[in-house]
Fold these 3 entries.
Entry 1:
Amino acid sequence: MNILCHIVILICALIISGCSSKYAPSPLTEAPYLERAQTQSRGGITVTAAVLSAKESQKVFGVDLADKGVQPVWVKIKNETESRIVFLPIALDPDYFSPHEVSFLNHQKFQGDTNDKMDKDFDDRGIDLETIKPNEDMSGFVFTNLNHGVKLVNIVLSGDQKTERFMFLFEVPGIETNYQTVDFKNLYAEDEIVDFTDQEELRQALKNLPCCTTAEDGSGEGDPINFVIISDPKDLLAAFIKRRWDVTQALSETGEFSSAGEVYSVSGYKTAPMGILYMYGRRQDVGFQKSRQKEGNRLRQRNQVRIWLTPMRYNGKPIWIASVSRDIGSDINRKKYWFVAAEIDPEIDESRDYLTEDITLSLGVSKLGWVTGVGETTPDNPHVNLLEQPWWTDGYRGVVVLEGGQIPLAELQIFPWEDLEEKHTTEYEDKLNRRDSPLEFKERE
């Protein structure tokens, strides 16, 4: 064999060696994620669930599942009823992955034996549509789409002419969110808390809120305070996560992005930090966003909500105020902060109305309404935010009350305050009345 053949064989060996990596999944007995497991029991059925972080899933399965957009959810179901029950994984994630699909995504080149073992491991550990007989149990992983920060786990079981639903909310290790940096218990002294029981007094208090967010020193007027949420913290978080909003990562103390990758991001980075706005002398307590598109540099196209806890309560429930807007793209022509600033939709009421519709469909809203307070502006005389971006509004704030559990839309109540529909109908009629009729137009011609 000549020296050229030896070189070719050596190069091929190096290529094969470089294309493979050690595949060493951990035994399921090593399961630190189970320390965060949650359990619910009802009607003879016990469900336990746990969500794996990116690091945990890589250790358990021996491959980087998060890099492929996959997040394992461990589920255990114990059936102590007299009937069979069926587990429906599609309720947990309509786009869940099959075990072999996830394995194939992680196959290694020229490693047939390793890939065969990987196929078997994923098949053994995964669960699909499953039937659990009376007095039996089953456990395994459902391979869902990746969620950073917070994940809602919805377990639906069908059987004996009825359906049981078990819903869990998990904080997933891996990122630091806005709300994790806030000491909510000590934000306000006891004598600062005001609890309203009369809805007319509540209305006046919400009308008297400041129009807009500010700069850090309290100066200027930024984006509007155009939404109010009356809710316990867990119900607020659950309602947004149900509707597929993502929590946002907290920016550094200086308000800087830690890397350009946080600004120019692919679709997987749905928890990218938002710019900071201020109320009560502090940055937003909670942030949520919905990314618009799924490929390339799409960070700048998203709905976003910045939320602050107020010192007010309504019948004991905390009152949160929010600034809701929609990023529609970047504008490099802006004079300030063009690198991280996005262009907002200037018709900002659309963003408020979208959130009203979306949060109502969470089926957690017991009551909604509208109050004035932002101050009406028009496209001809718009408000300008801290980044010199124009926006206009009818001046209304959306208000929702959130409860635990599910509330049918037929049971939704309305605050007897301002009538948004009537206002818009009247404005439209006024516009029609101000127009010249076709006859008058012809006569002037």
Entry 2:
Amino acid sequence: MSQQTTLVVVVDRFERFVGELPDVRALARCEEERLRELWAGLGYYRRARNLVRGAEQIVGQRAGRFPRDYSGWKEIPGCGPYTAAILASVCFGERVPAVDGNGIRVVSRLEGLDADAWSSGGQRRIREHLGELVRLAQHPGDFNQAVMELGFAVCRKSSPACDACPIAGSCLARERGIVDRCPPVRPRRAAVDTELTVVVLVDAIDETVALARRRGAFLGKTVGFPLLVANRDASDAALALLQRLPGADLARIDDAFRHTITHHRIRGSVLEVRLPADAVSRIDEPLWLALGVSSPTWGAAEEVASLLSSALDKKAWHTLREEGKR
């Protein structure tokens, strides 16, 4: 939970999460919708899905027994080199380095790597350096955590406290006066501007709203409103099918909200599709496929807000409800 999320945000959600899912078997049984509710507000939802996939593998293939070394953890879904190293060193005492952003910053300054920290060679050099040190440590888990704490609290990205650093005498970056250049700024993935239409289907008879499991790239495998990406043939085909629904009333709110998902900058519109009597029962599978969702469930309008876990869905629903009050 704390990877790329601050502890201030994590603590309360962690308590709730482990209170409901206290062991690996309970986690392996957790349904997708409940998982989203427990993870709400933490972002990077793929981490939560990987937690369940990992738990399923531990229960199904390892009889509920956790791996005890780095190579074993690496086989668990969602466990990359850093997570596997933390678990192996902290929990089981294996002498393996855990390389995160803090460790990269500490070693790049120690080694004076102002131009090579992010290349494959630079990353290998950093890992080898930490590997040599952790092999000398009496408690490798403590060592890995100490490097992370040093990078977080002392060898900070900006305004490092070099005078308080216990290893300042060995720091080549300090000696050369290049601390602010080590490591160099990491190249960022270019942001992609994306236009999305959020489709809200409403049964006008009983005022229920369609919520479905999405199959597309945006928020795939999550439950919410259908999402259509602008300027794609599939989206155009889905809109054409919606417009041909007998008696359907379509109302669009353009440029309704802004949202960001990883490197996508989203400009969202909302399309409300109100369906007349018996229209819902006549909708066939091709329309749901065109909308990129499985056959939906229909929830009462007053309950929709509590059923949504994605911030994007919540923004779209809030926009639609506010528009209806005007």
Entry 3:
Amino acid sequence: MRDLSDLESWRFHTHPFGPGDETGGPFLVASKIDRAPLMVIASTGKGWDHVSISRQNRCPNWTEMEQIKRMFFRDNETAMQLHVPPAQHRSLHPYCLHLWRPNDGREIPMPPAEFVAPEVCDGR
């Protein structure tokens, strides 16, 4: 994860969790879709970087999740969303999604790129 002091202009200083530090804390970021606030809480601990992203009235969409991923993680870092079995679901907010990245040297396994798209595909 990035040094979060680089994101100081988005830090939410009056959040009940407190302002945090270079490794975590709450942030308010304007959605690039509609400028509505995205509540972001970042943390690092027990081998994981974690970012939760929520909106007041709906879940963040792909564009917003990608916006936050690019802000909070370095370009060479892979982050993931997990879809756990229903028995393992936990939620403090109905419209919150999470990004995770192991930070203890473990790599996230990746499927072969050709399973996603042929090499000649340029995304257009």
